Amino acid sequence: MERENSTGVMEFVLLGLSQAREIQLFLFVLFLIFYSVILPANILIIFTIREDPHLGSPMYFFLANLAFLDICYCSVTPPKMLVDFFFCRKTISYGGCMAQIFFIHFLGASEVFLLMGMAFDRYVAICHPMRYASMMSREVCCALVGASWAVGFMHSILQVVLIIQVPFCGPNKLDNFFCDITQVIKLACTDVYMLELFMFFNSGLAILMCFLLLLISYGALLVRLHAGDPSKGTSKAASTCVTHVIIVFIMFSPAIYIYCRPFRSFPLDKVVYVFHTVVFPLMNPMIYTLRNKEIISAMKRLLVRHGICQRN
Hints:
Distance between the termini: 61 Å
Shape: globular
Number of strands: 3
CATH topology: Rhopdopsin 7-helix transmembrane proteins
Helix content: over 70%
CATH class: Mainly Alpha
């Protein structure tokens, strides 16, 4: 409360996706259906990987953690967005706004570095297959996942510590359906040029560098696979790398659009934010699953075992 009083702003007003009641109702039904279908599917992926002994490799361990991170990420902003569709005046407290910023960047950065760990896993599997079991032991995998969470926390806490020092003394309207640094920083009643520059390096440039590094690494792996002897194993490895590249593009493209530019409003901002915070995160594990016959078979076995569906 002291921080809220010192800034002069106790809450932020969210303008939402649209002011038209009919459009809000349509979006509520659309997002609720999407959320109700895809969210349980991601939970099913986690339970399938956890319960099936055939999916005990590091690749599936990372996929389960990716699905968990995406579920957490999509639990930060969409629930409030769905509730706000029923209110004419949409508000969020100062503390709630800061909490949204923290968890969005914490989970988002953790997922970025988890994808880096998945890329390292594919590198070891393809380039050092004889040493794969020892190099990618359970302890190493847990360490990589833990490191991704730690880096995500450090990335996010730095931004929040800096943003809470900024005074907000007047305008409190955010032309969005949630709080993010690119929106909030524009309401500051002080010069924030240096802070914007730091945010660009901490978010925008870091995301761009990770994106390019992942593309280069997967490109090198695909070239190596293409130059090797064609076999079923090689084809499967190449398919897995292609799937990872698709996920990288889906995740990084909106983030690069949002953070690798001046913090100004553009016409496509809200559309990109919806895909970035609601649609794409939940779709990442689904894309991987649809391209992986082993997971689909494991899901069928799990559902048959629990009597949810019948064996064909």
